[in-house]
Amino acid sequence: MLVALSAAGLTLLAQVQEDSVIKVDVDLVNVLFSVRDKKGTLIPALTKDDFQVFEDGKEQKISSFTRESDLPLTIGLLVDVSRSQEALIEVERRAAAQFFERVLRPKDMAFLISFGGEAELLQDYTNSQSLLSGALRQLKVDGGVYSPINSGPIPSQPRGTILFDTVYLAADEKLKGEVGRKAIVVITDGVDMGSRVKLREALDAAHRADAIIYSVYYVDWRAYGGMFNPSDGDLRKLSEETGGRVYKVDRRYSLEMIFDEIQKEMRSQYALAYSSSNPSKDGGFRKLEIKPRAKDLKVQARKGYFAAKQ
């Protein structure tokens, strides 16, 4: 079933933002993370004694530590189908189908959203390869639409690529209520034109959903004719603050190779939990840092979480 998340529907975002805080029990904080060496190789065989955890600068006691390669995984794939991506859609379609075949196991689920001037849910939660392949075949270029900013007789304005809106929707509407490991994989050239939510709001929604964002920076430079150079700066912020990474497609690093790297990382994560030393349920953002005791290792984890609010 094809569900359109229209511009009119997106106006509801402003109404729900203040009420969309995840209720995280501050007495137990769970963190998923990956570890790499200086060469970027994933390190799979570490223990809790290899790490220190800090919340707002104060060291916390790790209460549990596991390797979470088999924990159920929920993935949202977001594909940019704006005009600048037109020549890349077929490559994205084939690579995404292979990615789903490799990464999804019987207890995992995935959904697919395309976005340009509007966002469309092409496939809701499923584990079916045939349904996901069928949804991928529905990917088509969206050159942007004229949409009302608010309800009522107000003049329209053009919207381009609603990247931030789509990340917000995937996190807040789809992933916030799910359990287990949650990831957003977004394929885009990083350009946002017309989103109603800001980058910070999209990022906060990902934090509240406890979702990791993996960004695939895929640019068709010919589409811009040298008049504009897209940047991956916003994608870096979205990914690095949630514990993900930014991958760049180029002549040496194909989209298929990147998808393979993402699925390997998803299967090589650690999970730790601790009881926060801060008992306040103020709804505030708590900064997290996981430090490896070995100086030649680098931890890839979310930068914080939102506490519960009474």
Description:
The chain has 310 residues and is of the alpha+beta class. The protein has 2 domains: 3-21 and 72-266, Rossmann fold (3-Layer(aba) Sandwich), CATH 3.40.50.410; 29-69 and 269-306, no CATH class. It has 8 helices and 17 strands. It has helices at 7-10, 13-16, 89-103, 129-136, 163-175, 199-209, 233-242, 255-266; strands at residues 3-5, 29-37, 51-55, 58-60, 62-67, 73-80, 109-115, 119-126, 145-148, 156-159, 181-188, 212-217, 246-248, 270-274, 285-292, 297-301, 304-306. A 7-stranded mixed β-sheet has the order 1-8-7-6-11-12-13, sandwiched between helices. The two termini are 39 Å apart.
In short:
With 310 residues, this protein is of the alpha+beta class. The chain has 8 helices and 17 strands.
Neighbour order of strands in the largest sheet: 1-8-7-6-11-12-13
Give Rg in angstroms. Answer: 19 Å
- Taken from the alpha-carbon principal axes, the silhouette is globular
Q: Please write the string of helix (H) and strand (E) elements.
A: EHHEEEEEHEEHEEHEHEHEHEEEE
The CATH class of the largest domain is identified as Alpha Beta
CATH superfamily of the largest domain: von Willebrand factor, type A domain
Overall number of structural domains: 2
Average of the residue pLDDT scores: 86
Flag low-confidence runs.
6-26, 145-158
The number of distinct β-strands equals 17
Largest sheet descriptor: 7 strands, mixed
Write the CATH architecture name of the largest domain: 3-Layer(aba) Sandwich
Fraction of residues in H or I helices:
10-25%
What name is given to the CATH topology of the largest domain?
Answer: Rossmann fold
Which class do the helix and strand fractions yield?
A: alpha+beta
